[in-house]
Amino acid sequence: MSVRNDPDVVVIGAGFAGLYMIHRLRELGISVHGLEAADGVGGTWYWNRYPGARCDSESYYYCYAFSRELEQEWDWSERYPGQAEILSYLEHVADRFDLRRSVSFSTTVVSAAHDGDRWVIDTEGGARWTCRWLVTAVGCLSSANVPDIPGLESFAGEWHHTGQWPHEGVDVTGRRVGVVGTGSTGIQAIPVLAASAGELTVFQRTANFSIPARNAPLSDDEAAGYKADYAAIRAVQQASTNGHPFVVSDVDTLALSDDERRELFERAWERGGLRFRAAVRDVLADPAVNEKASDFLRSKIRSTVEDPDVAETLTPRDHPFATKRPPIDTDYFETYNRENVTLVDVRADPIAEITPDGVRLASGAEHPLDVLVFATGFDALSGPLLRLGLRGTGGVALADAWAEGAATYLGLGVAGFPNLFTITGPGSPSVLTNMPTSIEQHVDWIADLVAHLRAHDLDAEPTPEAQARWADHVREAADATLLPQAASSWYLGANVPGKPRVFLPYAGGFARYREMCDAEAAAGYPGFALRARREVA
Ligand code: N01
């Protein structure tokens, strides 16, 4: 095995996070190289090519803010950008800032161990890289969760996880298609698959709330308006809870009459999208407010779905609205009015096995299929880091360090893992926010820290005390909301059998989090053990 190279920093991943990290470090004159498993840039938007894949954040702010020129020159075509358009955007960014020359593609990291001096990174192809600082930019939702259902290997048709969708596409025309999962992904894919499949069977375990996206082409006037307003838009994002440029309503919905409240909800419904949450103050803090909003959304399912039994099966009753990540959709509930779509309640009658012909339920009912789609989500936040095979001081594996659940300081580093920085790691706001906003904040913060360490010839890792305090704070922040009430949420790791139940993202809000990170840096990084560099013979 040969040592390929030895930059100051290795960045794993070339999606939104990795590309900007490489750019920032290069600007600072710090040598950096990226390792990317895919054969191109894009991360999430490289892999998630399933039918209907589209972003739930609006295009004018689901993008980088670091370059005024980039902001002005890129034209989005729709209110919500589709997968292909976001991938084109990231390819443009890679070219515009000449980033590809700093990335090795088709290079999967199999292990990364700190040898007491440097990180030693081994890749599937046998190439070895070493570096002083290792930055993970592997995303929060990149480790596919394929359920362990008996008989899957015997299935005679084709099956795919949405997060590993074939690049050549899957022709479902006239075929019998099954979809397992009704999270954000399933809810995006189901209407599109139904439009061309012969028959579509949806295997639903948990009914979900969903709000119409109201996607539409972006008019020239709208696009020009956003471009002119970017300074103000970015300021609202930076001061917000979720990194979205929405100002949360100050209306006390419980003080309104029933008619006034219904009118407020109707307006938010008509506007559509994730903005619905911002229209309902305290929706994630006050159970009474949440129940009003949940009731309204349930009534929309009843009035949309023609068959009352199907409508009832689609009606969520086991978790308050938005305690699981709320999907947004285009004609999701309407799809169940189609002749070729069948809803199967697998909570009432669980999937027992996959047979060569399709899916067999516990009751013995059979659903013959040609194509089976797993929209079953991801081993979120910790999963993408665990599969890197990270080993810290003394050879301790991250999997052992996290046996009781993922623990970090600020979501940015792990005690016992020197000079490792984790962009949007567990314990950061990440998935509760508009991702590019959180990513840029993390990248800027890490770049400043690496520059500081380099200037003073220091190594750094979080102190165990700071990490323990942060874990308490992450728990308190979640407990101050209704979020932990969704028992089956991936925020808690509940979707992966055997995964420790720890509320993974930081729910205290993006603006507050950013201030804490800034205070940490201004105070000279007191939550980190900073050690003078040892001379190595
Ligand atoms: O995954 P999910 P996702 N048998 O975990 C079901 C982001 N995203 O890919 O709820 C039967 O939310 C599972 O059921 P249950 C977004 O943050 C963003 O949809 O566990 N069913 C659930 O219905 C999102 O939240 C965009 O009972 C099984 C579904 O599969 C995150 O990605 C677009 C099962 C999984 O839902 C993940 O969304 C799409 C089993 N064995 C996604 N195992 C944007 O636009 C799981 N399920 C940015």
TrEMBL record:
Q: Which UniProt keywords apply?
A: FAD, Flavoprotein, Monooxygenase, NADP, Oxidoreductase
Q: Which cofactors does this protein require?
A: FAD
FAD/NAD(P)-binding domain location, by residue? 8-210
- GO molecular function annotations of the record: oxidoreductase activity, acting on paired donors, with incorporation or reduction of molecular oxygen, NAD(P)H as one donor, and incorporation of one atom of oxygen
Pfam families membership:
Pyr_redox_2
The answer to whether UniProt assigns keyword Oxidoreductase to this entry is: yes
Q: List the Gene3D superfamilies hit by this protein, alphabetically.
A: FAD/NAD(P)-binding domain
- Similarity-based family: Belongs to the FAD-binding monooxygenase family.
Q: What is this protein called?
A: Cation diffusion facilitator CzcD-associated flavoprotein CzcO
Query: Which source organism does the UniProt entry give?
Result: Actinomycetospora succinea
